[in-house]
Design goal:
The structure is a single chain. By secondary structure, the chain is α+β, with helices and mostly antiparallel strands. It has a single domain, classed as Thiol Ester Dehydrase, Chain A (Roll), CATH 3.10.129. It has a six-stranded antiparallel beta sheet, covered by helices on one side. A hairpin with a 5-residue loop joins β5 and β6. The two termini are 20 Å apart.
C-alpha cells in the first residue's frame, strides 16, 4: 500500500491525498457502491502509485451467470471499476471510458479467488491506457484479458479531483 508521507512521484502531491481521492471515488459513486460489495474479501495488493498492482476478490453468487460461472458483464464491470481506481492514482483530472475490450478465456465458479492484475500502460494529456488480466488463483488459469482506454476530463469541465497544491 501507499506510505502516507511519501509524495506521489509524478503528480507531486502527498500520497495520502491520492488515497483520499480513491476513497472518495469509491464512496462517491452509487454504481461503485453496488459493485464492490459483490466482491467478497475484496482487497488491493501492492502500491496504487506503481504502474502494476493486483486486486483480489472471491466470486460471489451475485456475480454468476445462469451457467453458474462468473458473468462476462460482471468481469467487464469489475475491470472498468478497478482499472479506473488504479488510474485515479496516476492523473490529476477525472476520466471517462472511451473503449473497453474484454476477451474471455476461461470460467470461474462461486467461491473461486480471482487476482486482477491492473497495469497503467500510459497516461497522456488527453487519453490514458490500462490493461487488466484476471487469473483464477487456485490453478493460475487466465480468466480474461482487457484493454481499457480512458479520456482525460480537463479541470475546466469542473471535475478536477485532486489539486497539485494539496
Amino acid at each position: 500500500m501507499i506510505e502516507p508521507q511519501r509524495p506521489h512521484p509524478l503528480l507531486g502531491v502527498p500520497a495520502e491525498a491520492v488515497m483520499e481521492r480513491i476513497s472518495k471515488m469509491i464512496k462517491g459513486s452509487a454504481f461503485t457502491g453496488l459493485v464492490l460489495p459483490l466482491l467478497k474479501e475484496f482487497r488491493p495488493s501492492g502500491d496504487f502509485l506503481a504502474p502494476k498492482m493486483d486486486f483480489f476478490f472471491i466470486v460471489t453468487e451475485g456475480l454468476l451467470n445462469p451457467n453458474r460461472t462468473l458473468h462476462g458483464g460482471a468481469i467487464a464491470t469489475i475491470v472498468d471499476e478497478l482499472t479506473s481506481m488504479h488510474l485515479t492514482a496516476h492523473i490529476l483530472e477525472g476520466s471517462v471510458s472511451v473503449d473497453l475490450h474484454v476477451a474471455y478465456h476461461s470460467g470461474a465458479a462461486a467461491m473461486d479467488t480471482i487476482r486482477l492484475e491492473s497495469h497503467v500502460l500510459r497516461t497522456g494529456k488527453r487519453v490514458c491506457f490500462t490493461e487488466a488480466k484476471l487469473y483464477r488463483v487456485k490453478d493460475g488459469a487466465l480468466i480474461a484479458t482487457a484493454l481499457h482506454t480512458k479520456a482525460v476530463v480537463p479541470a475546466s469541465k469542473g471535475v478536477l479531483l485532486m489539486s497539485p497544491k494539496l
